[in-house]
Write a structure and sequence with these properties.
four-stranded antiparallel β-sheet, Pseudouridine synthase, 8 helices, pseudouridine synthase activity, 22 strands, PsdUridine_synth_cat_dom_sf, RNA-binding, isomerase, alpha+beta, about 450 residues
């Protein structure tokens, strides 16, 4: 039985300024395979370092958070071992100034295994725990509610709106499904069973306890669970009275961005497609996953020559004149990787950067800098941070196409149960809408 979750009484006040309470307590669509690392982000206390009152405003349907101080922690990834800490920051995190890691290190904002790391030449070791105190400017999201489909002692099933990630990652923490469920719906302690891309909407299943988590992660990784999506693609998708099957293997192309592509040495993947309707320009297509590779539907549709409409990652000529159809890119994998990174650098969204900022950062990176007070609490830090890129840049207005993808997770089912959402408006045949209104 479906029901829309009631939003808090102060969710749509007349004033544009709102308050999101943070009480104490990592562009991936179609990823059905259980990942043990996900459980790390669900441990109690993940949001403990958040300030209790983070203000936000809504303008033209877009929700913006005020900047705030926060601490982010992670363990050293395998590809980081043996590399300098500052080099990892510079190469892995595309949204930071090139001098920022060095300056942050000198100021004592980075710790390794609980100790301040002011040595800019420190080389990362296996299982190092890295923490970073930073001034967080979260990306905006669409101001849309999370629909609660079912809430029982073992599971929470929701209809995720587009524009927000499932769990904290990158420039998102409060503006995530877990963050909003916790702070606006008072739902916490959830275990992530599968994920959807930030821009993908649709069905999400969370476990509420260990036994359910273990049972469902095992189930979701098998063919016993059938997964159905719906999407809108460019062009007239074939309708031959049967399903179109793509079983091209998928490999990782850009590790830091999670970008995938078809490749001979990739992992096996299989998707079945069926056209629902077309208007002669675009087609709405059913998608049935028989494996759960990252971005599987998007990559397979790109390969077939029918990329998802307005897909910022896979519907682009950066993949070649035919946008990657048949896995033909017209360039080497290395060149393709470089071109994709260049096409998605955050600096492309910068309207204007304070001209003194770059000089200040270069000076601080080269000269001696005294560390900040070690015991400075987050709530005592200033609203403006002189080394924070977000505080020193005016950003361009992000178009609405960057908030959503025409891809929706519609249904998960087994022989014993079915969980589903309603079709998004864009997936409904206009002819059916007209008949319903007549």
């Amino acid at each position: 039985m479906k029901r829309a979750a009631e939003r808090p009484t102060n969710e749509h006040p007349s004033l544009e300024e709102k308050t999101a309470l943070s009480d104490p307590q990592p562009d991936h669509s179609e990823r059905a395979e259980p990942k043990s690392k996900i459980s790390r982000i669900d441990i109690p206390g993940y949001f403990d370092d958040m300030l209790r009152n983070v203000r936000f405003r809504v303008e033209k349907g877009i929700r913006y958070l005020d900047p705030y101080w926060s601490s982010y922690s992670c363990f050293t990834k395998g590809r980081w071992v043996g590399r300098k800490l500052v080099d990892v920051f510079q190469e892995e995190f595309l949204s930071v100034n090139r001098f920022y890691p060095i300056v942050a290190c000198k100021l004592g904002r980075i710790t390794v295994n609980g100790r301040r790391m002011t040595d800019i030449n420190y080389v990362l070791k296996d299982n190092d725990r890295i923490s970073h105190i930073g001034h967080r400017h979260e990306h905006p999201i669409l101001d849309q509610p999370i629909e609660i489909i079912e809430d029982n002692p073992d599971l929470l099933i929701v209809n995720k709106p587009p524009s927000l990630p499932v769990h904290p990652c990158g420039q998102y923490k409060l503006h995530t499904v877990l963050g909003l469920l916790r702070n606006e719906y008072n739902i916490e302690g959830l275990r992530v069973l599968h994920r959807l891309d930030r821009t993908t909407s649709g069905l999400l299943i969370f476990a509420k306890n260990y036994e359910t988590d273990r049972k469902f992660k095992s189930l979701l990784s098998t063919n016993e669970c059938r997964k159905e999506y719906v999407c809108m693609v460019d062009g007239i998708f074939p309708d031959e009275g049967r399903e179109i099957i793509c079983d091209q293997p998928i490999r990782t192309l850009v590790v830091s961005m999670g970008i995938q592509c078809v490749g001979e040495n990739g992992k096996s993947a299989k998707t079945r497609f069926r056209r629902l309707w077309t208007d002669g320009k675009n087609s709405v297509v059913q998608c049935f996953l028989e494996s759960g590779r990252t971005h599987q539907i998007r990559v397979h549709l790109q390969y077939l020559g029918y990329p998802i409409k307005d897909d910022q990652l896979y519907n682009s000529e950066v993949w070649g004149p035919n946008k990657g159809k048949d896995g033909v890119y017209g360039k080497s994998y290395d060149q393709l990787c470089k071109d994709i990174k260049d096409a998605h650098r955050c600096s492309l969204w910068h309207e204007r950067i304070d001209p003194d900022y770059e000089c200040r950062m270069e000076y601080m990176a080269k000269e001696k800098v005294e560390p900040e007070a070690a015991d400075m609490p987050l709530e005592s830090r200033p609203e403006y941070d002189s080394i924070c890129l977000g505080c020193n840049v005016v950003k361009k207005i992000v178009p609405r196409t960057h908030f959503m993808l025409y891809l929706h997770c519609l249904k998960y089912e087994t022989d014993d149960w079915t969980f589903s959402t309603k079709l998004p408006d864009w997936a409904i045949n206009p002819c059916e809408k007209e008949r319903a209104c007549s």
